[in-house]
Design brief:
The chain has 9 helices and 10 strands. It has 245 residues and is α/β, with parallel strands linked by helices. The chain has one domain: Thiamin diphosphate (ThDP)-binding fold, Pyr/PP domains (Rossmann fold), CATH 3.40.50. It starts with 11 loop residues before the first helix and ends with a helix. Bound molecules: thiamine diphosphate, iron/sulfur cluster (SF4) and magnesium ion (MG).
């Protein structure tokens, strides 16, 4: 385990604490857990967790975990990705893992910036945002991560705010226990380049939807949090192993 080098006040600390709590719970139930992370500030979490961990190349957490899970279907595997890592560099991998219903859980640290490279806009940054890469305002429209995952076929889709640690730990636990592709977007303030801790006053919790259609509507407002959707469907690993024997 390495020495923590995140900026004091970063939302990543709360994610780390909540995940430690959730993973301890899963391990106490008798499961083995392995984690992986992409490139960025979020990626350092692999070094800070006392678990088998793999820090992989930019955007490649989903294919790496797909291989790990195929080789050892009894493992619970969790990937940490960033908005840049998962929705810019690696967006195709995230979409295909969701489409296949690969039995992995992805936790997306959405701070709305490329944090490690000092604050450029990403696929989730709002149109018009001034940043170091967009001094005249961001000309692009953002992706709604939860809507993208729902449209791609993810069977568990949730959003939480980093300031709500207890709820976050519960959602992480449920995502890990879900059989199939789980996606949790964490609204993670970056105190150095996109500090939105004030969002605490605006986030609100919604109940689970009955259909993908309804879930799409529920997560449209990016301040809405909750488990938007969950369903059981055959996983990629089960289908692969079944086809072989
Ligand atoms: C293929 C590749 N492209 C670009 C980079 C440079 N790079 C390193 S970290 C990073 C930003 C990652 O942003 P995000 O995933 O949002 O993570 P954060 O730092 O915000 O947690 C980028 C662009 C790289 N290392 N490799
Ligand atoms: S730059 Fe932002 S995301 Fe990275 S450690 Fe600092 S506060 Fe956290
Ligand atoms: Mg980021």
């Amino acid at each position: 385990m390495g020495r923590i080098s995140w900026c004091p006040g970063c939302g990543n600390f709360a994610i780390l604490k909540a995940f430690e709590k959730a993973s301890r719970r899963v391990i106490e139930e008798g499961y083995d857990v392995a984690v992986s992370s992409g490139i960025g500030c979020h990626g350092k979490i692999s070094d800070y967790l006392n678990l088998p961990s793999f820090h992989v190349i930019h955007g490649r957490v989903p294919p790496f975990l797909t291989g790990l899970k195929l080789a050892n279907p009894n493992l619970i595997v969790v990937g940490f990705s960033g908005d840049g890592d998962g929705l810019n560099e690696g967006v195709e991998h995230l979409v295909h893992a969701a489409r296949r219903n690969t039995d992995i859980a992805i936790i997306l640290h959405n701070n709305g910036v490329f944090g490690l490279t000092t604050g450029q806009v990403t696929a989730t940054s709002p149109k018009g945002r001034k940043s170091r890469s967009t001094p005249y305002g961001n000309p692009e429209y953002p992706i709604n991560a939860c809507q993208l995952m729902l449209a791609s076929g993810a069977t568990f889709v949730a959003r939480v705010f980093a300031g709500e640690q207890k709820k976050m730990a519960e959602v992480f636990y449920r995502a890990m226990k879900h059989r199939g592709f789980s996606f949790v977007e964490v609204l993670q303030p970056c105190v150095s380049f996109n500090n939105f801790w004030d969002l605490r006053k605006e986030v609100f919790w919604v109940e689970k939807a009955e259909s993908v259609h309804e879930a799409m509507r529920k997560c449209e407002d990016v301040r809405a949090c909750g488990i938007f959707y969950a369903e059981e469907k055959e996983t990629y690993e089960d289908a692969v192993w079944r086809s072989m024997f």
